[in-house]
Amino acid sequence: MSRHDVFVTLKVLVVLIAAWVMASQVRKPGRWLGRVMARAMNRSHAAMTAWGLSHIAVEKNFTILDVGCGGGKTIDTLASLAPDGRVFGIDYAAGSVATARATNAARIAAGRVDIQAGAVSHLPFGAVTFDIVTAVETHYYWPDLARDVSEVQRVLKPGGTFLIIAEAYRGRRLDWLYRPAMAMLRARYLTIAQHRELFANAGYVDVVVDTEQSKGWIYAKGTKPGAAPEVR
Ligand SMILES: C[S@@+](CC[C@H](N)C(=O)[O-])C[C@H]1O[C@@H](n2cnc3c(N)ncnc32)[C@H](O)[C@@H]1O
């Protein structure tokens, strides 16, 4: 092997390792590099999240949970939309919880926001607690998606809404690029129809799945059967 070959091989290895490290930080932000990633995601997911949230009605006094809250920007947005309510966040990554708490420090101090470490498969909340549960750019990584979507339904009030917002779905614009990227992230890559089935199979009603094709965004929402939450 020539010196040039060694140099090129080393360069490729460094790029691959960097890509792997970044990928694992997106999946589960760690304590140090994870905080940088979580803050970056706060910025990069904001427009998509605003688009997704525009498809649900948020009442002023709602109690809301954001699962896989990352850096906590969605919690901040939801708390502004529900100024008389409370917003909870959970995430299983230390870096995400720390960043989300820093992002929402003032509202945590005021008792309007609460952020805990926790996994979607065992939500640390009683049944029938939330008017809305949101999940932005996170469902790809959930360990048992069908069961986890049912676990979300457990904590929703009857008539409550579960909303998934994401920028990767099979068949999206630039699918050829996303396919290997999602495989590298060990992330689920569902079609539009599979998102619909996911909600319907878990027993949600009024299921809607729609996309913003020019951006490649998708949202999926469903309602827990039963009476709608009373608006006070
Ligand atoms: C790509 S980040 C998105 C973060 C944030 N929702 C946003 O839009 O910026 C995915 C987040 O989901 C969290 N996550 C993944 N699997 C999870 C699980 N099983 N339970 C709780 N959180 C999870 C990760 O720790 C990470 O913070």
Task: Give a verbal description of the structure.
There is one protein chain. By secondary structure, the chain is α/β, with parallel strands linked by helices. The protein has a single domain, classed as Vaccinia Virus protein VP39 (Rossmann fold, 3-Layer(aba) Sandwich), CATH 3.40.50.150. The chain contains 9 helices and 7 strands. The protein has helices spanning 3-27, 33-44, 46-53, 73-81, 94-103, 105-109, 145-155, 175-184, 192-201; strands at 63-67, 86-91, 113-117, 130-136, 156-166, 205-212, 217-223. The longest helix is centred in the first third of the chain and has 25 residues, at 3-27. It is globular, with a radius of gyration of 19 Å. The model has no long low-confidence stretch (mean pLDDT 92). Bound molecules: S-adenosylmethionine.
